[in-house]
Structures are given as structure tokens and as C-alpha cells.
């Protein structure tokens, strides 16, 4: 597809994000505005990986659409690799909450959580793990009936069951994703499988409900890893949530990944059964009637079937700038990989070597700058 590069709406250490529009010669099948993520062709391994993952996943209403990739020769002879993505006029969910300056209402949390879970269920059913679920990677698409959200940024995604070259008990420790959203098994055993996405989703729900990260705004890096990996503690459950919401989070925060509910099971949880509540009165149930009752224990695993999400149309909305860039309170960059000696026998030893002694920069990640 021929396209025209517009103004820059974000940049980072290895990539830039611009607005893009199809050339006049293109068919009307493409949206009038897109986002193009670009980087030097010689440094494009991560971006090419993201494109390949999106190609293998195919289209789903719960994940950002990809319209293709291309190589372009820029001024000065520089060759850029570009990935054309769906443009989110509302920016990221983290940006949206920051501009509001307050937590989301529970009906909004339920609606967004359902959309994210439908996307995760699709990703997991295709044999992939996202590995970096967080509000900064959830894009907001304004529409008439309320904002819709989709999962974006698949640069760290992996095949389920696929062992990292640097991971495993014999090869050291790989830090994949954002530490404040990491699951206990990721800290302890280098395990990045579908249950770790569910744990991260729980952290995202807490952040939607409180307006702050699940583990607090500025936790000590080493202490946080101990809390996540070695202790029995889980993120604090927001008191303002309904009992169903609290129970939903407990299913996300099961320390044992084998006991944690799957995305498909969580789609049938009563917390997501109600679309909106006004003045403590149930307005309506926007989901189809459940074919089976909500699972109450893990023996119900095989009987839990999610409701298929319906396709939504692309809404261009207003042309306010947005991007898929990162700006999160993490103490390590997403793509950092730290090696730990293979003979480290205890969880505490691994965490001690993983955690940095330097004071983290909680304002930016990977140098991304939000452009308003």
C-alpha cells in the first residue's frame, strides 16, 4: 500500500511514530488515518518481530490492526522499516486516565476489562503470550457509545511454551516486560506463559480502579521483587470495588499459575456480566446469556467457554495525537535482559542479582516522549 508520512507524534530510542495517510491512488478499504512505527532497517529486529506476530495472529476486534509493512528510503539515504498500524485517536489508556486525573468508574473498568480479556483470549488461543500487558499498551478508540480499547505493542510477544534463548534454569534470567506487572513465576522461574498475562491484567485493573500502579507509585526495586517472587503478598485489592470485582482480582492474583483463572474463564466471571450500573441499579446485561454458569472452581475449567466478541468498525474520531509509545513507572526497560549465574539456587539470590541498586527513573521508559 502506498502511503504518505505525516507529522511525528512520538519517538523513542529506536523508533518513531508518525501519522500516516493512504496515498490518493489507494482503495477506500483503508482508514483515512493510520499510525506508522518506523526505525532504522538495521535495528528493526523487534519491530519486524511485532509485525510477524500480528501477521500470524490475524484480525480480532480486541487487538490493534496492522495494515502492512514497508521499507522506505528517506532523505540522506537512510533506509527505514515501517509498520502501519491502526490509529488510536484516544491515545493509550494510561494517557487517558492521566488526562482525567481520577480513577475509572466500575462500569468503565468492566467494559475495558472485558475488551482486553477478549483480546487476550484470542492471543492465547493462537498460541501466543503478549508478555507486556499494561495500560500503556492498551489503545483507546473513541466512539459514540463510549470508548473502546484494544491491545497493542506485540514487540515482546512469544510463542507459548517456547523457551527463551536466555531463559530457563540452565541459561540465566531474562527480564521480559515491565517488572511492576510481572507474575511470581516470571520472577522465580523465567516463566512467561498465558497465566502471566492474566496476572498483569489484574495489575491493570487495580490501576484502573485506583489511578496508581498496583504495587504503589515508587516501590523499592529489590523489595518489590521479593514481594512478587518470594513472599505470599499480592497487590492490594481496591476497597472501592464491588465484591464481584474483588473476587475477580483474587482469581487473577492466584500465586500458583496453575490455580490462576484463564482469560476464557474470566470472561464468564460475574464481574463482567453487567455492562453498567447506575445508582446501584442494574441497567442491562449487554453480554449474551451464558451457556454455562460461571466457573466457581478449577474443576470447571473445561466447561468455561467465552462469548465471542463482535467486530467493531474503525472510528477515526478526532485527530488528537496518540501513539503506541511507552511512559510507565518501571525500573528497567522492556527489552532489557539480565543474566544470572546458573548456580543461583534460591529465589532471593536471583532477585538480588536482578534488582538494580540505582534509583529508578519512574517518569520515562526507553526515552519515549509523549507529544501533545
Automatic annotation (TrEMBL):
Record-listed ATP binding positions: 37
Domain of life: Eukaryota
Biased composition annotated in UniProt, kind: Polar residues: 312-324
Pfam families listed in its UniProt record: Pkinase (PF00069)
Domain Protein kinase: 3-272
Residue segments, region Disordered: 312-332
Molecular function GO terms recorded: ATP binding; protein kinase activity; protein serine/threonine kinase activity
PROSITE patterns: PROTEIN_KINASE_ATP (PS00107), PROTEIN_KINASE_DOM (PS50011), PROTEIN_KINASE_ST (PS00108)
Keywords: ATP-binding, Kinase, Nucleotide-binding, Serine/threonine-protein kinase, Transferase
Family under the similarity heading: Belongs to the protein kinase superfamily.
PANTHER family from the UniProt entry: CCR4-NOT TRANSCRIPTIONAL COMPLEX SUBUNIT CAF120-RELATED (PTHR48011), MITOGEN-ACTIVATED PROTEIN KINASE KINASE KINASE 19-RELATED (PTHR48011:SF18)
Name of the protein described by the UniProt record: Protein kinase domain-containing protein
Protein's organism: Eucalyptus grandis (Flooded gum)
Species lineage: Eukaryota, Viridiplantae, Streptophyta, Embryophyta, Tracheophyta
Amino acid at each position: 500500500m502506498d502511503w504518505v508520512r505525516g507529522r511525528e507524534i512520538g519517538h523513542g530510542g529506536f523508533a518513531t511514530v508518525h501519522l500516516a495517510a493512504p496515498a490518493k491512488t489507494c482503495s477506500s478499504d483503508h482508514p483515512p488515518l493510520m499510525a506508522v512505527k518506523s526505525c532504522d532497517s538495521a535495528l528493526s529486529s523487534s519491530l519486524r518481530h511485532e509485525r510477524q506476530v500480528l501477521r500470524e495472529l490475524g484480525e480480532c476486534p480486541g487487538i490493534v490492526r496492522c495494515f502492512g509493512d514497508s521499507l522506505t528510503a528517506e532523505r540522506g539515504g537512510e533506509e527505514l522499516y515501517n509498520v502501519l498500524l491502526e490509529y488510536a485517536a484516544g491515545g493509550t489508556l494510561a494517557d487517558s486516565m492521566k488526562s482525567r486525573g481520577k480513577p475509572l468508574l466500575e462500569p468503565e473498568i468492566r467494559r475495558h476489562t472485558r475488551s482486553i480479556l477478549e483480546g487476550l483470549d484470542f492471543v492465547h488461543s493462537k498460541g501466543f503470550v503478549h508478555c507486556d500487558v499494561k495500560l500503556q499498551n492498551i489503545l483507546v478508540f473513541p466512539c459514540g457509545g463510549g470508548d473502546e480499547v484494544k491491545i497493542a505493542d506485540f514487540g515482546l510477544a512469544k510463542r507459548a511454551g517456547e523457551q527463551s534463548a536466555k531463559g530457563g534454569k540452565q541459561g540465566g534470567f531474562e527480564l521480559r516486560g515491565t517488572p511492576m506487572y510481572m507474575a511470581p513465576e516470571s520472577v522465580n522461574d523465567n516463566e512467561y506463559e498465558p497465566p502471566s498475562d492474566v496476572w498483569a491484567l489484574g495489575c491493570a485493573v487495580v490501576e484502573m480502579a485506583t489511578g496508581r500502579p498496583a504495587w504503589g507509585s515508587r516501590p523499592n526495586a529489590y523489595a518489590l521483587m521479593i514481594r512478587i517472587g518470594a513472599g505470599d503478598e499480592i497487590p492490594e485489592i481496591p476497597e472501592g470495588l464491588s465484591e464481584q470485582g474483588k473476587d475477580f482480582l483474587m482469581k487473577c492474583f492466584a500465586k500458583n499459575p496453575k490455580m490462576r483463572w484463564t482469560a476464557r474463564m474470566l470472561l464468564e466471571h460475574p464481574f463482567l456480566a453487567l455492562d453498567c450500573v447506575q445508582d446501584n441499579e442494574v441497567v442491562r446485561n449487554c453480554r449474551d446469556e451464558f451457556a454455562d454458569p460461571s466457573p466457581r472452581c478449577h474443576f470447571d475449567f473445561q466447561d468455561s467457554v467465552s462469548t465471542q466478541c463482535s467486530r467493531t468498525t474503525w472510528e477515526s474520531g478526532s485527530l488528537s495525537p496518540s501513539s503506541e509509545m511507552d511512559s510507565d513507572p518501571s525500573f528497567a526497560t522492556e527489552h532489557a535482559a539480565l543474566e544470572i549465574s546458573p548456580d543461583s539456587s534460591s529465589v532471593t539470590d536471583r532477585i538480588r542479582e536482578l534488582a538494580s541498586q540505582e534509583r529508578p527513573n519512574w517518569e520515562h521508559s526507553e526515552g519515549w516522549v509523549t507529544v501533545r
